[in-house]
Amino acid sequence: MAEIQNKSIISRDENFAEWYTSIVKKADLVDYSSTKGSMIIRPYGYAIWENIQSILDKEFKRLGHENIQMPMFIPESLLNLEKDHVEGFAPEVAWVTHGGSEPLEERMCVRPTSEVLFCEHYKKIIKSYRDLPKLYNQWCTIVRWEKTTRPFLRTREILWQEGHTMHATREEAMAETLRMIKVYEDFQKNYLALPVIVGEKTDKEKFAGAQKTYTVEAMMYDGVALQNGTSHYFGTDFAKAFGIEFLNKDNKLETPHQTSWGVTTRMIGSIIMTHSDDLGLVLPPKIAPIKIVIIPIGKENEIVEETIKSLKTRFDEREITCKVDESDKSPGFKFAEAEVKGYPIRIEIGPRDLENNEVTLVRRDTLEKIKVGVDVVPDECEKLLDIIQKDMYDKALKRRDTMLYFAKDYDEFKEIATTKSGFIKINWCGEVACEDKIKDDLGLKSRCIPMDEHDPDGPCAVCGKDAKCQIYFGKQY
Amino acid sequence: MAEIQNKSIISRDENFAEWYTSIVKKADLVDYSSTKGSMIIRPYGYAIWENIQSILDKEFKRLGHENIQMPMFIPESLLNLEKDHVEGFAPEVAWVTHGGSEPLEERMCVRPTSEVLFCEHYKKIIKSYRDLPKLYNQWCTIVRWEKTTRPFLRTREILWQEGHTMHATREEAMAETLRMIKVYEDFQKNYLALPVIVGEKTDKEKFAGAQKTYTVEAMMYDGVALQNGTSHYFGTDFAKAFGIEFLNKDNKLETPHQTSWGVTTRMIGSIIMTHSDDLGLVLPPKIAPIKIVIIPIGKENEIVEETIKSLKTRFDEREITCKVDESDKSPGFKFAEAEVKGYPIRIEIGPRDLENNEVTLVRRDTLEKIKVGVDVVPDECEKLLDIIQKDMYDKALKRRDTMLYFAKDYDEFKEIATTKSGFIKINWCGEVACEDKIKDDLGLKSRCIPMDEHDPDGPCAVCGKDAKCQIYFGKQY
Predict the structure, then answer these.
(1) Which CATH architecture describes the domain A290-388?
(2) Pick from A40, A68, A90: which is nearest to B43 by CB?
(3) Residue B47 forms contact with A (CB below 8 Å)
(4) Measured between CA atoms, how close is B124 to chain A, in angstroms?
């Protein structure tokens, strides 16, 4: 039955791009509008984002961050204040030139990121070491005028959070940069079940204006990378450009050190491209808006209805989101829909099972069917949700590990790059020339210098000179 | 002491506008940036908005609404689809004309409101009576290119929520329109302690494109009105313009009926202008980010410190947000700061009081000092927070009622309008000519035809003809 309903989803092994587009539409995550390059995030998709926001926001606040709301527009002269930054962003911003029928005196862009706005504000409110650190975060929409767009992965409007912090010392700012990339790593591993690789970006790939950029790199089912969150250390460059200074404990003026860090709705894309299958979405329980769907089997039946009602109450008491599908569709149709939507557990309740005082649980991730006694359903489901969460991570990790390669020299690199999908690790001399060569020859960009296992164990795979570190390369979305 | 610190806040009776601006700055609610007409909502101000969002969002969801996220841009041709609507909004939208260095094929405005985007989407997803009602809501930022701006009251960027719903029948849509204005009324009365008047807008004052607009009208300390939330019934006008139709149970095509409703960060302005005083902010406990501040008195003292620590723990356990001011400022300075910030209760803990096993509670709303035993502090504070909430409402209601007037004829109306501040109720014939006359002669706009007590008890106060209803007039922000 399920196959019949979902057959319009093309196989992910056949055409991954089309499969992805089909999933986001069929699972009611997004829709398109006449605003090109933007997406409508539909209620089911937005509920995933709300879960992500709620978990991360709590964590940010626990760590001492405060939320703030900056203007969405940046006057051109303000954007121009930090040279590297404006060079990075000016080509891809949307310009507001008119208010009503009148041309503006100075055009303004819709924020592509808000460093300059935060700096202008920090300049006003940071006077003394007592004002530091400043740990601010903002949940908002940013705009980058992308030519080619795909839902969640690359859109002109992006929902995200951007943390911007100021610290008295380089050490504190670096600690914050690393603390926040760790928050992203833990969140993606523990909630999104994504086996991410964390590391440092090369000078070539780092954020416009940053001294150091750390990244969380996820690998999709097709071996292609998705940069899933970044944390930047700016040193004092922005602060100097904006004239931000504070009086230290010795009453001397110093320039503070700055960080910023952000994650976006792109993470929803990475959940889909990592876990979902040809039947539809597969959502990690901890992030699923609806964790359990109950589907009655057979004709109207009082015992079935009463069992459902009592189970629903018990799930509500435990705050486990549970939907009862009471529509007039056939059970087969409902099963298929539950699979498209990726509800982690489906409970089938029919009179035959109930005669044995049993119901059937179906895991969305494995499609395994498990019969359990009615009395223990909430306990069993709670356990099963934990198991599904863990198994999804383990499965993704196992698959990803089969797509991690090591190339000791350039021939091996070329051989892997042209025949396999995944990330290729090499020893690297640290020169941009070697990075450029790989990009030009094979179209692969550097992903990151991993935090762990980055000591070289041989010469640079490209030029053969002494290597400084190990580094991952890979295709990217 | 407090007076010394806060004396830079001008008296609200002396210059209300300047007092307001001073409060929003001094209480760290907002700051300005080089983005003219927009404001930075600082952490303390944003925390009030987060509290508002959290309460309303829960209520919307309880009533069956789902959150969604629409694009922030509207192509000009889409905005033009509903005639009355575009006439109302086109003069005050911000236009994006360039993406990067390239001019757009069609310019787009930043959404001033999202009716047209919702309609375009509803056209796609509403096919059958089974798809109705659709109860969507969006939390987002909108832009209206205002010439004169004031923090929270009138800004170019506005944080708000906009509900947009579609229904099978006029009755259902009207019920939704009224249900949501009631949600706003209850919220503003019960959480913001605002004694609001709810009623219907005249044809002249209703929302561009709406058939009916209901409004929540709050009266500020100076007698001037603040429109604090609206709910609109659109009939089928938008739906027809967009070609939205559904198959009813008899398999016939029908046009659905539509509503929209919204409240904004303006509500924060109304809290300030209703409750605050010459010492600073006064926040209703239910919406205050920090409900209690504890201030130690005297030199460092072990018993004081232990008492504070234990109280803090007990407040945390009850989830009552409590801040301990351990800074190296003087107690007097801390008292003044607590008054500026409007924390509902201040607890002063000093060794002398502790000898009697007592501490001093100070109510922010009345400045009354109350000595209570250490053991009962959390209980007493919980009770006191409820009392403050209720007293703030009662006080605001009492004051507002002294500024409600009734004018039986135009001479009386002119007399009141030129000598008093507040709302003036009259019997009204329902003709726009009489409404216009008041506007032209005296600069007062109609506020609303109140839901209660709207039956006329005499002829129209302006033209002397038969009256149809009673209506309020007043100056507005």
Answers:
(1) 3-Layer(aba) Sandwich (3.40)
(2) A68
(3) yes
(4) 9
Tokens of B196: 């609001």
CA distance A180 to chain B (A): 20
* CB-CB neighbors (< 8 A) of A90 in chain B: 100
Instruction: Residue B49: list chain A partners with CB under 8 A.
Output: 69
Query: What is B404-474's CATH number, 3.40.50.300, 3.30.110.30, 3.30.450.40, 3.30.450.20?
Result: 3.30.110.30
DSSP H or E stretch at residue A326 = none
Q: Does B237 touch chain A (CB under 8 A)?
A: no
With CA atoms as reference, the chain B residue closest to A107 would be: B96
Question: Please, what is the Cα angle at A351 between A348 and A356, to 5 degrees?
Answer: 90
Residue in chain A closest to B158 (alpha carbons) equals A71
- pLDDT tens digit at each of 477 positions of chain A: 344 455 567 899 999 999 999 999 999 999 999 999 999 999 999 999 999 999 999 999 999 999 999 999 999 999 998 888 788 888 899 999 999 989 999 999 999 999 999 999 999 999 999 999 999 999 999 999 999 999 999 999 999 999 999 999 999 999 999 999 999 999 999 999 999 999 999 999 999 889 999 999 999 999 999 999 999 999 999 999 999 999 999 999 999 999 999 999 999 999 999 999 999 999 999 999 999 999 999 888 899 999 999 999 999 999 999 999 998 899 999 999 999 999 999 999 999 999 999 999 999 999 999 999 999 999 999 999 999 999 999 999 999 999 999 999 999 999 999 999 999 999 999 999 999 999 999 999 999 999 987 899 999 999 999 999 999 999 999
Neighbours of A443 (CB within 10 A): 10
Question: For chain B, percent helix, then strand, then coil, each to nearest 5?
Answer: 40, 30, 35
Antiparallel, parallel or unpaired: β B469-474 and B423-428: antiparallel
Amino acid identity, position B356: N
Q: Give contacts of A159 with chain B, Cβ < 8 Å.
A: 69
Pick the CATH number of A2-275 from 3.40.50.880, 2.40.50.140, 3.40.50.300, 3.30.930.10: 3.30.930.10
- Could you give the CA distance from residue A37 to residue A24 in angstroms, rounded to a whole number? 15
Residues of A in contact with B110 (CB under 8 A): 72, 96, 110
CA distance, residue B47 to nearest chain A CA (Å): 7
Chain B residue nearest residue A50, CA to CA: B67
Alpha-carbon dihedral A448, A453, A454, A455, rounded to 10 degrees? -170
How many pairs of residues across A and B have Cβ atoms under 8 Å apart? 151
Of all residues in chain B, the one with the smallest CA distance to A142 is B72
Q: What is the DSSP letter of B45?
A: H
Q: Is A94 on the interface with B (CB under 8 A)?
A: yes
Q: How far apart are CA B161 and CA B181, in angstroms?
A: 13
Q: With CB atoms and an 8 Å threshold, state whether B124 touches A94.
A: no
**B81 interfacial to chain A (CB closer than 8 Å):** no
Residues 121-160 of A with CB under 8 A from B: 121, 124-125, 136, 140-141, 143, 145, 156-157, 159
Domain B290-386 sits in CATH 3.40.50.800 = yes
Interface predicted TM-score (ipTM) of this complex, two decimals:
0.95
- Nearest to residue A174, comparing CAs of A238, A262, A234? A234
Helix (H) or strand (E) holding A388: helix A377-401
